[in-house]
Amino acid sequence: MASSAKKGLPRGRTRLADVLRASKEFVSVDTASSALSIERDAAARLLARWATQGWLKRIRRGLYVSVPVATQGSEQVLEDPWLLVPQIFSPGYIGGWSAAEHWGLTEQVFRGICVLTAKPIRKKNWNLQGVPFVVKGVSDTSLFDLKPVWRGQAKIMVSSPARTMVDMLADPALGGGIRHVSECLNAYLALSDAKPALLIDLAKQLGNGAVFKRLGFLLADKAGFESLANECLAFLTQGNAKLDPALPCKKLVKKWRLWIPANWKDDKRA
Description:
Arc Repressor Mutant, subunit A
C-alpha cells in the first residue's frame, strides 16, 4: 500500500488495482477479500460500490467483471461471452447450435449461446452482458463426451461433435429445428474423422428413445448408412414421437414410430 500511495493514487483506486491484479477474467468477493485482507462482507460492499461507480459490472451476486475505460457506459464488457459459462452455469457445457458452430457443422450464425447445465435453474432465457443465453437443465449423469476448449486461461466444456448431434436429435430446438439438425447431421457424417456408430453408443448412454427414432428416420434414405439406420430399430421405445415437437406433424411413419410433417420429403433441405 505504501509504495502505491507514494505514486499519488487515491486509496480507492489503489485497492481496486490490487483486486484486479489478483483476479483473472472475473472479480469475486473471495478474491477481493483475499487481495485486501478484509472480511467477505466488507469486500462485498466494496465491490458493490465500485460497480455503482462504474469501475466494475455485476454479472451475478458476488461476481463482477472489470470495465475498461473505453467501454464504460456500454452494455457488453466481456469480448468473449463464453467465459461466463463456467462461472455461472457450472457444471455444464456449451452445446446445441453453439457447439455445432464451434465444430464447423453449420455455417448458420446464431446470436444466442446454447448451454446445457446440471445446475438447478429457474428460467430458460438469460441475458448476460447484452448476450442472450438459452439454457437447458440436464442431469448430472448426462455430462459425458465433453471436450475442454481453452479461451485464454478459462477452460470451457463443449459437447463433442457426436454428442452435439445426439443432443440436437434428443431436442431439435437445441439445433434451431429439425431441418437445421438434419443439415448438421449431413455435415457430421461428411467429416473425415466422423464416427457414425458413436451416435448409437451415445444415444444409448443418454437414454432418450426419441433419438433413435429421429436418427434412424434421417439416416434411412442416406446412401451408405442404411445399416446404421436399421441398427436404430433395435432401440425404438414404445409410443410415437414427433420429428420436431415445434412443427405440425400429422403423418405417422409406423416403422419409426414417428410423426412427421406431411410435406417433409418436399420441404426438407437435407
